[in-house]
Write the structure tokens for this entry.
Amino acid sequence: MENSTMKAMVLMGHGGIENLVYKDVDIPKLKNGEVLIKVTATAKNNTDRKAREGLYPVDDNNKNEITSFNMTGDDTFQFPRIQGADIVGTVVDTAIDVDKNLIGKRGLVDFNIYLSENLDLNLTPDYYGHGANGGYAEYVAIPAKNFYTIENKDLDDAQLASLGMCSYQTGFRMLNASRVKAGDKVLISGASGGVGTALIQMCRVLGAIPYAISSKDKEKELLELGAQKVIDRADPSSLYEKILEATNGENIDAVMDLVGGEYTNIFIDTMIVDMKKRDDYPRLSIAGASSYNITEILWSKIYLYQVEIHGVSHGTRNEAKQLMQWIKEGKLKPILHATFKLSQLHEAEKYFVSRGKGYLGKIVIVPDSKWEEHGKKYSLKAKS
């Protein structure tokens, strides 16, 4: 390789976007089992912001402490760190023990750093962009077994990045944890975001019936994506009635909650309308708390109605393989909202936080050197 350095957006410490510094860094050296990917697109996820700001407290006695995602027991989120988990690019080099035929292949990265070889379990999740450097750079080194070749000619690299594992694998784990099956009525909060739009599509792949909670301005797009009904979230005091109106008074079978806060109790109530008509336990999978991180729950309601609550963060190797197969088969549709240059990540962060009317799907970050080829036509300016 001619160059030894690359452009990257480097996070220097917890805090605001001023801690993201665009600079030259060394191109990563390959370890055994790894491939070097020339990055063409990386989807942005809310976990980037939350990790940067230190919004992952897990200690009941320190609910407001600044801490990163840490399920392994090790402080893997070390600075400086390059974030960005949902990476698309082309293999340009391989370690000595990796098949050289991968060179030149385009693909999508499974973002998980797996600490176990169990294909169906991931109890100590970590990920590229957190426990190791990610895709907000021109190059990234990842294990070859985390790279999946995707040859679909109808998917641009930016579109493929919007199908990344951070949203789809989290959503798939939510559905699997709650045993969602054909015919189930599934309630999805935060339905216009990356995980929400992924859940709608995967419900349809599984034969389940998705009911989307979102703002009214997203209704047309979410219905086209596969939502059975779109329920306006504007007035929480009437949300329970609006959900039951959408289902003609029938129980919701399972809830995919990305919101938390005051909404969670409402969602639980929609599953226990008439227990005599259920054929399985009420099931709640939660993978976010965008409304509020603390919810007061009446535990007697949970155990008397036998409500199952499943916390979800990351999926498994086998779930990643299934998702990659669905992508190859064209069963999942990319929902790409807009692209930004890597050097403009500050602007992308500001836009993401203030997003509102008209926002649907994923923001994708493209290295400046690849902008003309992979990013320009999907930029906000191009859309307008």
DSSP finds twelve helices and 17 strands in the chain. The longest strand covers residues 34-43. The chain has a mean pLDDT of 92.
